[in-house]
Amino acid sequence: MSKQEVKLAELSLLMEALCEERLSAEEQQRLEEIVLSDPDAMQYYLNYAHLHGTLYWDQALSSDAELAVASPASDAELPVLKQPTAQVRRRSLSRAGLAATAVLGLVVVVWYVFRGPSTAPQLAVNEQTPATESPNPSTEAIVTENGLERRPPFESSQHPVLRLHQDGTVTQASDQPLIAAKPRVLPPVEKLPADASDEAIVRFINHRIQDGWQAANISPSPAATDAEWVRRVYLDVIGRIPTTAEAERFLKSTKPDKHQRLVQDLLENPSYVTNWSTIWTRLLIGRSTSREINRRALQDFLVQSFGENRPWNDIVFDLVSAEGDADSNGATNFLLAHLNNQAVPATAITTRLFLGTQIQCTQCHNHPFNDATQSQFWEINSFFKQTKIVRKKRVNKKGEKAAPQLALVSLSKGGTTFYETRQGLMQPAYPKFAGVKIPDGPNVNRRQELAKLMTSGKSDQLSRAMVNRMWAHFFGYGFTRPIDDMGYHNSPTHPELLDALAQQFTKSDYDIKQLIQWICLSDAYRLSSRFAADNSADDPDDGSTPNFSRMYVKQMTAEQLYDSLQVTANPTEIVTDYHSAWKKMQKRDQWLQQFVYTHENEENDETTTFDGTITQALLMMNGPLVENSLDINRKDTILASVLKERTPDARIKKLSLAALTRYPTSRELSELKRLVKERTRFLTSHKVPPQIAVQQSYQDVYWAYLNSNEFILIH
Fold first, then answer.
1. CA distance linking residue 574 with residue 243, whole number of Å
2. Which parts of the sequence belong to the DUF1549 domain (predicted)?
3. Alpha carbon separation from 258 to 110, 264, 657 (Å, rounded)
4. What does the alpha-carbon distance between residue 236 and residue 359 come to, in Å, rounded to a whole number?
5. Where do the domains of the chain lie?
């Protein structure tokens, strides 16, 4: 059981005691400590208290009409009841509802006071009242003045995953604290000026992340080695591992600004354009699309946009407002792929990708957790009502019938959108976004108006969504989880940092390269992925809030693995020009299809099985890509060049650098040399020629490197 689950288990027991009016003063202090230490615990408390109070209050009110008023009786006449009467239960439940509501208001007030800059209460951290002997709760009961049977106060030591110490403190059975120490109240954050330099922005990022560490009472992991960092930044920025030459150049450099220089060089590398156009093609239309969608035309549009470093709001405007056929205007393919089912997929993916909000569930009902309503979904959907897909018949050069050509056409008038409420009523919806209603005239292009409202800069949703998505790309986790469901119901982990980066991104004219540079040069991005002594609680995999006190390990995407295996085979074949790389990218897309699964639902969703499955394991053990890296018959491969080295040390070091972007440790080197020697001796004893035996032995070493977790993980 994780620490988060232990904390919620204790919170659940304390809430039960609170609603049953048997919460002691010490338990009340513990309850406040848990609730004020974690936003998830706070939300749990609010939901529990609200639900409990509402249910019991409703039950108490509904019983009034059924029960007669009893005449008062003396205490001597009251028997000891094993089960409370209906009337007594009604009064008890009413008090429980009122108590829960009162404490709810009290804790909310305390919470806001606690969050204040200077007047927050300083409660003791991890204080526990020494336990006292108490009757066995299973055998003894307490009779109140009303004759009700009451259980003794809850003892934390009775919980199966908690441990009671001699000094009275209670901890998790693994001797780890149940919760992190209470967050400290930090001074107000100074805002960045409008003309802040890149150095000032990076410094601001560092300070805000450090504030998070201080508030959570944790320390960061040590800095990553140069070998770890260079591999990480190559994979994140250009989508592949560095070649041996690129890695050696960085590792041997002694320039103090080599990290900044490398980030700038990677942003100008042609592979940057190929990588990010691939990423956004996948986000916009998925990995598998119908033959009618011109995938290359869309990626050509993105290549040109990323190559020219066009502002992000301009790119989004073109994607949302695009018109014309799929071949001549590649941007049209985004909406052409999602305008089915009354444009429900187009509505959902537009807000999710560009605005960071998930509204797909509100097509049928109001959102249960935020203020998104069914009417708002159909108001945005009505912007697409004016758009029509036209299929043009085509024939190829041989005169044979070919796949039709799709085109987006805007009609002069879109009409009214009607939707059905949960009550079965039909309601009209008119184009409206961010409180701005678009006139329904014949000369108004609804999608262009929507694109203007989204990208005008008057709302920061576009910037916040992009900053959150980019942060998640580089760290594995964004400021919210999920990254495309932002709102008051899903508070960000670092709100000041998210707001500041969004504002600076807008002021930079939506410069994507600038945003990447800010993130990659931050201190948090240069941390090791190894746990430190006191940041083991910073593990989002178990549900805890990410504090970015270390680099979270990510698995390579299928595209990153494919391109990295190409590097391990023959770095000289790396294609830097996108147009000449298209044929190889087509081969990669065909290779990827073995992992892609399409749901064929209303949202056009798809998933991949590229996540440690048997197919992936078999692919890495004996697939054609790995076999290509192990080919010793070609003179220009990594393995062929390694075998030209004269010493076993030099050979193993080169293989390690090619696969893992690091040199082997001394122990690793000695063990591998011993294994190579034993393997060679074994093969020669079985009549394998000595030269072939040596080659096969180093093939085994390279195969082991490529099949290691260290190779496939970004750490």
1. 10
2. 205-388
3. 48, 10, 19
4. 29
5. 3-172, 312-455, 558-573+581-714
Q: Where residue 309 falls among pLDDT bands split at 50, 70, 90?
A: very high
Angle at 541 between CA 539 and CA 545, to 5 degrees: 55
Instruction: Give how far the C-alpha of residue 111 lies from the chain's centroid of Cα atoms, to the nearest Å.
Output: 27
Q: How far apart are the first and last CA of the chain?
A: 25
Looking at the chain, how many residues does it have? Answer: 715
**3-class secondary structure, 467:** helix
Q: Three-state SS for 417?
A: strand
612's torsion region: left (phi>0), alpha (psi -120 to 50) or beta? Answer: left
Which tokens is 115 given?
A: 């969050």
CB 165 within 8 A of CB 173: no
What is the helix (H) or strand (E) element at residue 113, kind and residue range? helix 86-115
Residues 300 and 277: their CA atoms lie apart, in Å, by: 8
User: Beta-carbon neighbour count of residue 414 at 10 Å?
Assistant: 23
Contact yes or no for 241/250 (Cβ under 8 A): no
Residue 199 CB neighbour total at 10 angstroms: 10
Using CB atoms within 10 A of its CB, is residue 254 exposed (0-12), middle (13-18) or buried (19+)? exposed
C-beta atoms surrounding 550 within 10 Å: 25
Tell me if the bond preceding 270 is cis, omega within 30° of 0. no
- Rounded to the nearest 10 degrees, what angle do helices 39-62 and 86-115 cross at? 150
Query: Helices 461-475 and 512-520: crossing angle, nearest 10°?
Result: 40
- Cβ partners under 8 Å of residue 700, min gap 6: 675, 676, 679
Tell me if 60 sits within 8 A of 94, measured CB to CB.
Answer: yes
Question: Are 238 and 272 within 8 A, CB to CB?
Answer: yes
CA distance 178 to 442: 63
- Whether 569 contacts 628, CB under 8 Å: yes
**585-600 residues labelled b (16+ CB within 10 A) or e (exposed):** beebbebbeebbeeee
Q: Is 424 left (phi over 0), alpha (psi -120 to 50) or beta?
A: left
How high is the mean pLDDT of the chain? 77
More confident residue, 404 or 316: 316
**Are the C-beta atoms of residues 156 and 23 closer than 8 Å to each other?**
no
Element (H, E) at 172: strand 170-172
Sign, CA torsion 450/452/455/457: negative
Query: Cα–Cα distance between 656 and 708 in angstroms, integer?
Result: 11
Residue 617: CB atoms within 10 A of its CB come to 12
Q: What are the helix and strand counts (H, E) for the chain? A: 27, 15
Helices (H), 571-686: 578-592, 614-622, 624-629, 638-642, 648-660, 666-685
Q: Quote the CA–CA distance of 248 and 654 in Å, as a whole number.
A: 10
Q: What is the pLDDT of residues 163-205, one digit of tens each?
A: 444 444 444 444 443 333 445 555 666 788 878 899 999 999 9
> CA angle at residue 230 from 540 to 669, to 5 degrees?
95
**405 pairs with which residues across the strands?**
392
Q: Which of 154-158, 521-525, 636-640 has the lowest mean pLDDT?
A: 154-158
Those residues whose C-beta lies under 8 Å from the C-beta of residue 154, and which sit 6 or more positions away, are 13, 14, 16, 17, 22, 23, 27
